[in-house]
Design brief:
Layout lengths: L13 H11 L5 E2 L14 H8 L15 H12 L10 E4 L2 H12 L5 E6 L4 H7 L4 E9 L3 E3 L1 H7 L4 E7 L11 H14 L2 E5 L25 E6 H4 L8 E6 L3 H15 L4 H36 L5 E2 L7 E5 L6 H12 L1 E2 L1 E2 L10 E5 L4 H14 L2
Parallel strand pairs: 1-12, 3-4, 3-6, 6-7, 7-8
Antiparallel strand pairs: 2-9, 4-5, 8-9, 10-11, 11-14, 13-14
Helix pairs in contact: 1-11, 2-10, 3-10, 4-9, 10-12
Length: 385
């Protein structure tokens, strides 16, 4: 009696089952998977955030499908500070990046169509696409000391029903940024195939070092129809406030925005208080971003130092909140993750959660508070000796 779009089993995977068992028993677990900034021990400007949300504008309901002009102008200013001129007219607000994907799948695809998504990457794409009756076809990222798009594999993954290609910039969890030559190749591919580009840029503010070859955003003048997504969840460390956006660029952007308005007007999901507060929230977000940058950079530097000369190694990471630890293939990733949780009290994610092509990789969150992170990594390395 239920939709075939809800095809997933409700059974727990072995790691989740073991974690639940540990927590029921009252065991202390060093969680190196924490990605919720509100639980990461950051200092928020709480009075200022609450004051921004308490304005009288929150009591007025005058919705616009694209979002309040003042909020879209604040997003436009966010890009201007990064050297990219985006008029507010090409910005559409959503309740989250996940909702933005749902809007874009509705806009671009019919049931049975497909979209291309990178592998390894965030595992939510399949869920979001299937809820819109759209299939995901994966194209690989290759690692040779740095991550790259495999354009030959991208081409072979394309079908007559492909409607869009997704890029995550920087990627989650590899932390790899799109390079300028890759961006140009991607645009050429999209134009040639008549595809839209969906660029997920939620971690774009968290690069670890400058790189002139990097393409930090695809927002701006583009030769292919391009949709860039971001929002408060990562930029301000405020996932609970539920505000994201889509920036539309390239040929056909006016028609795309008009059609997105129809979709957005059906839901009008973005709450007025967070829209009214957005200019102030984006200004306040600078202090939170600075803390996250300092935390993630310090944890990454410590991890690299501790693994030097060990049987584990850290893959190159350019940005984001995660690090990839390559461990000996004496066990499978799942066996490593289960053993670390059972015997060492450390929670990590195995690489296959993100569709890594080979073994054995563990994914660690650099957002973890430093005390927990250092203790957890020390236990991981001790388990490998």
């Amino acid at each position: 009696m239920f939709s075939s779009r809800l095809k997933w089993t409700q059974n727990q995977n072995p790691l989740s089952a073991l974690l639940e068992e540990k927590r029921r028993a009252g065991a202390h677990v060093l969680d190196l998977t924490e990605s919720n900034p509100t639980r990461a021990g950051l200092e928020y400007p709480e009075p200022e955030i609450l004051d921004a949300l308490a304005g009288r504008a929150s009591l007025q309901y005058d919705p616009h499908p694209r979002g309040l002009l003042s909020a879209r102008e604040a997003v436009s200013q966010y890009y201007a500070e990064r050297g990219v001129e985006i008029p507010a007219s090409r910005i559409l607000l959503t309740a989250s990046t996940s909702e933005a994907y749902a809007y874009l799948f509705k806009l671009l695809a019919d049931p049975g169509d497909d979209a291309l998504a990178p592998r390894p990457s965030y595992p939510l794409f399949e869920f979001l696409s299937f809820l819109e009756s759209v299939a995901i076809r994966q194209y690989p990222l290759r690692y040779d000391g740095a991550w790259h798009i495999d354009f030959d594999a991208l081409l072979h993954a394309t079908t007559p029903r492909t409607r869009a290609v997704i890029v995550v910039n920087p990627n989650n969890p590899t932390g790899s940024f799109l390079k300028q030559d890759e961006a140009e190749g991607l645009e050429y591919f999209a134009v040639r195939r008549g595809l839209a580009i969906l660029s997920d840029e939620v971690f774009a503010d968290y690069g670890f070092e400058e790189d002139p070859a990097r393409s930090a955003t695809l927002a701006g003048n583009r030769s292919a129809l391009t949709f860039c997504m971001s929002g408060l969840s990562k930029i301000a460390g405020l996932p609970q406030l539920k505000l994201g956006w889509i920036v539309v660029s390239g040929p056909g952007h006016e028609d795309a925005i008009e059609r997105l308005e129809w979709i957005a007007d059906t839901y009008l999901s973005v709450a007025t208080p967070v829209q009214a507060a957005l200019p102030r929230l984006l200004d306040l977000s600078k202090t939170v971003r600075a803390q996250i940058r300092k935390r993630t950079a310090a944890n990454l530097a410590w991890l690299r130092n501790q693994t030097a000369g060990s049987s584990a190694s850290v893959l190159r990471v350019e940005g984001g909140w995660y690090a990839i630890l390559q461990v000996p293939r004496t066990r499978s990733e799942e066996a490593w993750a289960l053993a670390l949780l059972q015997e060492s009290g450390v929670l990590v994610q195995p690489g296959f959660f993100y569709d890594f092509d080979s073994e054995a990789f563990l994914v660690l969150s650099l957002l973890t508070d430093p005390q927990t992170f250092t203790a957890g990594v020390q236990r991981i390395l001790a388990a490998m000796t």
